[in-house]
Amino acid sequence: MLICLLSTISIGLFAQKSLGQAKSGNAEKSDPQSTSILNKVNTQYASYKSMQLDLKVTIEDGNLKEEIPGKVSVQGNKFRIDSKDQLIISDGKTNWVYLKEAKELQISNPDPDDVAMFSSPDKLLKSYQKDFISAYAGTVTYKGKTVHAIEFKPKDGNSEYSKIRVYIDKTSFNVLQIRIFDKSNIRYSIEIEKFVKNPTLSSTHFKFDESTVAKENIIRLN
Fold first, then answer.
1. Within a domain: residue 19?
2. Which of 118, 132, 142, 174 is at a distance of 20 to 30 A from 149, taking alpha carbons?
3. Residue 20 lies in a domain
4. What is the CATH number for 193?
5. In which residue ranges of the chain is pLDDT below 50?
6. What's the pLDDT at 128?
């Protein structure tokens, strides 16, 4: 599921391994300015009934660089993530993962934590606020506009991640990009290239038509 943010706003899944290991007694605290901005982000996303996002996930490892475009639709606890290799759909009760090249469909029950990670960037930020220390890093120029930059440092010194940097629009308080730096010098970024709030999405948008897949290629993991 790592490539599955898209396969990836599951970048949350990248972090989950270390997030659960954070030490609870850490005396360091997030600074008030970053907390204030993040609260506005959370409030903004909570006001949307549905969302559609065009994403570009970039993975950099030394001289190797891979870019993965994808589309994400969200409505409540329902989501749909479509990338070149996979189609992931959840109606909140059932998850369908369709591997396009293999023409294989995997069906399972959703994990509530995974649903929360996929459902909106603010859910991801809330998990960071719980297990990371946030600090306001000032304003930076992002695609010709001035935006807020917030950095997260893991509370657990043994985390494989060194920091997470988030760029946030100063006017809309929408997340524009999330970048993750790990200690092995692999870098991940999720760039939200297009954002549509409150689109009208049909119920069938969050259902997979199982009749389109040969029965022998359907794997039920329930």
1. no
2. 118
3. no
4. 2.50.20.10
5. 1-26, 116-119
6. 58
Residue 10 CA, chain-centre distance (Å), reads 4
- Token pair, residue 194, equals 């297009």
In a domain, 22, yes or no: no
Residue 172: closest CA among 48, 66, 79: 48
CA nearest neighbour of 172 among 34, 9, 35, 40: 40
Domains in the chain, number: 1
- Residue 77 has a CB neighbour count (10 Å cut-off) of 16
Q: Establish if 70 belongs to a structural domain.
A: yes
- The answer to whether the CB of 135 falls within 8 A of the CB of 36 is no
DSSP secondary structure, 47-78, as one string? T-SEEEEEEEEEEEETTEEEEEEEEEEEETTE
pLDDT of residue 98: 95
9 phi/psi in degrees, rounded to 5:
-55, 10
Give me the pLDDT at residue 196, please. 93
Query: What angle is formed at CA 117 by the lines to CA 95 and CA 212, rounded to 5 degrees?
Result: 20
Q: What is the pLDDT of residue 122?
A: 53
Query: pLDDT per residue over 79-101, tens digit each?
Result: 898 988 899 898 988 999 999 99
Sign of CA dihedral 32, 34, 37, 38: negative
Specify the pLDDT at position 129. 57
Q: Virtual CA dihedral for 193, 198, 199, 205, nearest 10 degrees? A: 100
pTM of the predicted protein model: 0.76
Q: Distance (Å, rounded) from C-alpha 129 to C-alpha 123?
A: 10
Q: Do 153 and 135 meet the contact criterion of CB atoms below 8 Å apart?
A: yes
